[in-house]
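Quick one, tokens below. Sequence please?
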């Protein structure tokens, strides 16, 4: 008996245009809505008038299809990213810093947990980087498809 293998090529990181033209359009729209609603609920931005001669940081929606250990799609994930590489040091920002533990500290902690037979758990903090206040104002272009009145921005 000869069997057939049915395969499908999954686009794990579609563009917004590709996602909205796909069979999964409803799941992608829901993921985008969830991301934008979460950012709004966190008070990440307010819609304001853009002052004259203001440089706006670009933004875009980044999409990813999450798979389980067997390669089965389990979640449509959307993130709004500010394209901060368009900013100029000393003009648009002074310094950057992300409070992330060094790998050596994580290894030391895991070694200690093994030695003392501690139970270790992993977790993910949703929207973790949105929990700090900036010392200056950043004006950001809304992502493609966002409903923001003309002359206004985030």
């Amino acid at each position: 008996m000869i069997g057939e293998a049915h395969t499908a090529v999954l686009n794990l990181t579609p563009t917004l245009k590709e996602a909205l033209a796909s069979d999964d359009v409803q799941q992608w729209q829901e993921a985008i809505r969830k991301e934008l609603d979460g950012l709004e609920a966190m008070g990440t931005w307010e819609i304001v008038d853009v002052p004259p001669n203001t440089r706006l940081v670009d933004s875009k929606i980044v999409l990813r299809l999450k798979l389980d250990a067997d390669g089965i799609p389990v979640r449509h994930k959307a993130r709004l990213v500010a394209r901060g590489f368009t900013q100029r040091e000393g003009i648009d920002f002074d310094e950057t810093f992300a409070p992330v533990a060094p790998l050596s500290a994580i290894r030391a902690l895991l070694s200690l947990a093994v030695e003392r037979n501690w139970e270790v758990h992993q977790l993910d903090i949703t929207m973790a980087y949105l929990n700090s206040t900036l010392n200056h104002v950043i004006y950001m272009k809304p992502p493609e498809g966002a409903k923001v009145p003309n002359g206004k921005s985030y």
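The beta strands are 48-49, 59-67, 73-82, 152-153. Residues 16-94+137-148 form one domain.
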